[in-house]
Amino acid sequence: MTAGTLNSTTERLAQAERLMAEQAYEPAHALCMEALAADPQAAGAWFLLGVLAADHDNPGKAAELFGRAAALDLDDPRAPAHLARCLIAMNRRDEALAQAQIAEARKPADALIFDILGVVFRQVGLPSRAIGHFEAALAREPVRASIACHLAFARQDVGDADGAEAAFAQALALDPGLHQAWSSRVLLRRQTAEQNFLPDLETQFAAARGSAAPRLHLGHALAKTHEDLGNFEIALDWLIRAKAAMGRQVGYDPRADADLFAAARATCPTATAGARGATSEGPIFVLGLPCGGAAAVEQILSQHREVASVDNLTSFGLVLQRMTGSSGALLMDEAALEAAGEIDLRRAGQAYLQMAGARLAGSGRSVDRAPLNIVWAGLIHRAMPQARIICVRRHPMDACMETYRRLLPTDLACYDYAYDLTHTAAYCAGFERLMAHWRQVLPVDRFTEVALEDLVADPEGETRRLLEFCGLDVDPVFLAQDEATAPAAAVMATHAGSIGRWRSYGPGLAPLREALESAGVRL
After folding, report:
1. Residue 44 to residue 109: CA distance in whole angstroms
2. 274 vs 492, which has greater pLDDT?
3. What is the CA radius of gyration of the chain?
4. What is the mean pLDDT of residues 65-88?
5. Are 26 and 46 in contact (CB under 8 A)?
6. What gap in Å lies between CA 227 and CA 233, rounded to an integer?
7. Does the structure show a pLDDT above 60 at 171?
8. What span, in angstroms and rounded, lies between the C-alpha atoms of 366 and 379?
9. What is the mean pLDDT of residues 476-502?
10. CA 303 to chain centre
């Protein structure tokens, strides 16, 4: 290749990059293709085509193009960093981590790549590693509010409340309209009459007008502030106002989840015999409604010396998705569940165990808490008959209200019911019927239930029962009543105040109660 050709290719790519920044995609694409015609090994052209694909929400194609660019230029950190971000979007977290490490080793220098790497490391569950990248990005572009916000989230993940507060303050000083920063900032600590952000939040909420996402975040921040101040009825009013626009936007139909639960029951329609042989080995799955107490049980069990948590890192649904060839991020419809029931489920179980085993780091057992375990319980048992499944229950009014008052991920359709109290009641009723089915068809030595209220009242007794059910050693120190040393006592102490909290919200919860009673839920 001549020097003249090199200059021509370089000039084409420089111009294409400028056009990409202006979202002039067609002429940018044409220039990249011209560059590749002159030099098929032009890594920069493949990289820009990857950016174009990513900008058009095609992470699969973008990953392919970034992969070619990364292989052609072994020095540039941009392609592996962008590839890592695409792999995250495709739920391929282990591969994303590997590519992020490659990009990290190539010594990035610009803020964008540092920011991308921070996002990837945080997404794969390494927030402490993400912090340094966000700090490096912010040092290079101190006026970029989004980077300061990312840094705040990472510091919040590791429990650095003061550091997160400082970063949120910096982000909001640069851009007061960052609604996600407001909702997270208010969660950092209890708001008081002397120190709160009510005037700013009310101003931003009014400015958001009909914008669904901003009003959702800001309204939740206002509701949480009023809860902290003891104004529960005002808090409920803010929650209703916060969720209204998003509820209209998603257009939730309760029949969709009713069909989903029916399809779930069909994956294991009749009673099964208990698994033989495996008495102490196997994964532990904890399921329940969002904010229904499953996180507390997962937290207790994961502190046992023989157990490690794979929560948010390993997914039985991801295994099913890959084996069925589903293109969706979640198996959330009747057809997908039917397809999952037709695959070799024992092989699916082996794939899950292999995936979880890579996370255990020497621990013998894993505990997995994923929201959709409620749907997959029958498939989990068929795939891994040795697995233990624990359903965590709580009073339906508390369960519904705890779900309703939380800011759940807006990008997951499985939470679309949570924008309306009556829809939340319908989902809770469907959950109750599904759990009654699992209670009938799953072996008693593989499926059990525990009430959050019972755990709070008797953490030692209920934890002992759960450990015995899971085939784990019952360590007296683990069960001690001292909150400083006993995981169960410490975790339950933090939940004691939430028992019966629904009563504080007053008559505004009458529609929720009526909907639950109409659906046959016992209160």
Report:
1. 17
2. 492
3. 25
4. 96
5. no
6. 9
7. yes
8. 18
9. 74
10. 21
Query: Are the C-beta atoms of residues 359 and 314 closer than 8 Å to each other?
Result: yes
Length of the chain: 523
Residue 461, number of CB atoms within 10 A of its CB: 13
The helix-helix angle for 254-266 and 421-441 (nearest 10°) equals 10
Residues 338 and 367: beta-carbon distance below 8 Å: no
Q: Rounded CA gap, 10 and 300, in Å?
A: 58
Cβ pair 450, 439 in contact under 8 A: no
Distance in angstroms (rounded) separating the CA atoms of residues 494 and 510: 27
Q: What is the mean pLDDT of residues 19-36?
A: 94
411's tokens: 């990008």
Q: Are strands 365-369 and 307-309 parallel, antiparallel or unpaired?
A: parallel
3-class secondary structure, 366: strand
Q: pLDDT grade, residue 277 (50/70/90)?
A: very low
Does the pLDDT at position 337 exceed 90? no
Structure tokens at 272: 């099964």
Torsion, Cα 478 482 483 486, to 10 degrees, reads 0
201 versus 330: the higher-pLDDT residue is 201
49 vs 136: CA distance, rounded Å: 27
305 pLDDT tier (thresholds 50, 70, 90)? confident
Distances in Å between the Cα of 111 and the Cα atoms of 70, 130, 139, 143, 308 are 19, 13, 8, 11, 35
Range with the poorest average pLDDT among 46-60, 324-338, 391-405: 324-338
Angstrom distance (rounded) from CA 447 to CA 376: 13
Q: Please name each of the domains of the chain with its CATH number.
A: 255-518 (3.40.50)
388 beta partners:
284
Confidence check: pLDDT of 39 > 50: yes
End-to-end CA distance of the chain, in Å? 78
